[in-house]
Hints:
The chain is α+β, with helices and mostly antiparallel strands and 162 residues long. It has three helices and ten strands. The strands form two sheets. It has a six-stranded mixed sheet with strand order 5-9-10-8-7-6, with helices on one face. The chain has a four-stranded antiparallel sheet with strand order 1-2-3-4, covered by helices on one side. α1 runs antiparallel to α2.
Amino acid sequence: MKPLYDAPWSNSLKWVSLLSSLLLLAVSGLIPVPGIFGHLWWPIRLFGPVLLIGTSLFTVRGYELRDRALWVQRLLWKTRIPLDSLSAVEFRPGPFGWAWRTCGNGGLFSFSGWYYQKPLGSFRALATSQNDAVILKFNDRHSIVITPEEPELFVQHLRGKA
């Protein structure tokens, strides 16, 4: 049996996603198009909906451990992360702390992309919460931060004790 873990949304992710979605749709629908740019009305109006659809495709829905890899379930596909060079797994309960987003999404349907935090350095986030993070450290690449529903059990599975 392959372990599957949901990726529950934190309240902050729910609020940011809802408010950002409403704002993008409202701005796209209500922004006045000056006469000079009248022929460009449709790209301006489509910007918000296209951005929402694009970011929603990268939603993190869950995590699966199989075939010596972590499979991050997205909306329409799965991202495979090989675990061959995994050197350490750490569960960090509570708030994850301050991290600077260097390239990525900071709360529209997920916290995903590249971040920087002094203790960790540069890392990749594939998360739906800023609490109870699991940190995967590798020998040959940057760390990855995920937020499975049962982080302690996830860590036990990775360590082969469950």
